[in-house]
Amino acid sequence: MENYESDIEKRMETAWGQDFPPVPKTQIKNSWSELESTIRSRSPKRSFKWAIAAAIMLLLLPALYLLSVDRSTIEINNYTQLDKEFILPDSSIVILKPNSTVSYNKKFSKREVALSGQAFFDVVKDSLKEFTVETSRTSTRVLGTSFLVTENEDLEKTEVSLYSGRILMSLKDTENRRSWAIIPGESFLLDKGKVQVKKFETDLSFSAGNKYSDLNNIELEKLFHFIEERFGYQFETNEMTKNKLVTLRINKSDSLGQILKVLSLINDVNFEINESEKTIVTLKKEKK
C-alpha cells in the first residue's frame, strides 16, 4: 500500500510540474450527456447524489486527462520565490531560480537541457557524453562542471558564470561560428549581440546553493558590487573605500543592514542608506 501511494505521489508531482492542453469541449459535452442520462434513469431520491457526483467528475476531468497524457518532454517550472533543487536522470543537480523553466527529453540520452530564466548546474562527468544547456541565444557545452546560466530575453542578455571545470560557449548564429573556452572564475556575457568575457569571484556567490560565503582579503569595492546585485542598491564610493581589503563570512540569510553593520565595524566607517534613491554613502565615523 505504501509503495502504491508513493508511486501515485510521484506521478502527481511530475504531472503538477507540467503544462497540458485543455480538455476538448466535445469530450466534456459527451461526458456530461452520459452522466445526465444516468441521473434521469435513477430514482428521484438518488438524483441529488448523482448530481453531486457529476459535478465532481467535471472538476476532476482535467486532472484525469492530465495524468493520462504521456509526453516525451519533461518541463519543470519554478513559480515560487525560492530556489528549487532537483536531480536530472544522469544524477546532475539543478538549482532552478524563481520564475525560471527547464525542459529536457524524458530519455535524456543526449544530455540536453533547455533553459528559460536562471539555473545553476552541477554536472556529473561523463567522458563519452557532453552536457548541453540551450537558451534562446547561446549554447553551453560541458563534460562535467558547475556553472550558472542567466538569461533575460527582454533585455537580450545571457550570462554564464563558471565555478569549476571547463565549458565551451557558442552563439546560435549561423554567421558567427566562433566558440569561447571559459575557465573557472570567468563569466561569458552576451549583451545585445556583443560578447564579453569577464572575471568574477567564485567564492562571492550563493548561486551554487551555499548557505554562506567565507571571504579572505577581498577588495571592498568588489564586495560592494556583490551587495549591489544582491540587494539592488548603488554604492557611492570615495577615498575611504579604495584599496581596502576585508575578511569576513556572509550568510545567505544576512540582511543588507547586518552586512553593513559588520563592514562598518571592520573599516571604522558609517554607511548611510537613501531608500528613495536606493543608494549607500560611506561616511567617516565621528569620534565620540
From TrEMBL:
GO molecular function: sigma factor antagonist activity
Transmembrane segments: 50-68
FecR protein domain mapped to chain residues: 85-167
InterPro entries: FecR (IPR006860), FecR_C (IPR032508), Ferrdict_sens_TM (IPR012373)
Keyword field contains Methyltransferase: no
Protein FecR C-terminal domain ranges (all copies): 216-279
Top-rank taxon, per record: Bacteria
PANTHER family, per the entry: PERIPLASMIC SIGNAL SENSOR AND SIGMA FACTOR ACTIVATOR FECR-RELATED, PROTEIN FECR
The name this protein goes by in its record: FecR family protein
UniProt source species: Euzebyella marina
Record's signal peptide: none
UniProt keyword Transmembrane, yes or no: yes
